[in-house]
Design a protein that fits this description.
Blueprint lengths: L3 H21 L3 E3 H8 L3 H9 L14 E3 H8 L7 H16 L1
Antiparallel strand pairs: 1-2
Length: 99
């Protein structure tokens, strides 16, 4: 039979999983939450906001909010294609010019 300490430890672990699940399902994030979502520091997130490299919202002029879609768009902004993708793009472009 499990001890009280083991049960409490398991409950804490389950609580963290539930909180993480809820965190990932949000559509609007604060600066701190957005930084955590992207896996960057809060200061880097603030730099992105200050330089307007990422879309953000200020409904009352002070607090900053970011949409999940904007965070995802930022992450996917500069794709690096694989060699196979590049070969395919080149082949398709060559076919266009031959026609």
């Amino acid at each position: 039979m499990a001890s009280m300490a083991e049960i409490l430890s398991e409950l804490k672990s389950l609580r963290k999983e539930v909180e993480r699940s809820n965190f990932c399902n949000r559509s609007i994030y604060t600066t701190k939450d957005a930084a955590e979502f992207l896996g960057v520091s809060v200061s880097y997130m603030q730099k992105l906001i200050a330089s307007r490299e990422i879309t953000f919202y200020r409904p009352k002029g002070k607090l900053i909010y970011l949409e999940r879609k904007d965070l995802e768009d930022f992450v996917l902004k500069n794709p690096i294609h694989s060699k196979d993708d590049i070969d395919s793009i080149v082949a398709n472009n060559l076919l266009k010019f031959k026609l």
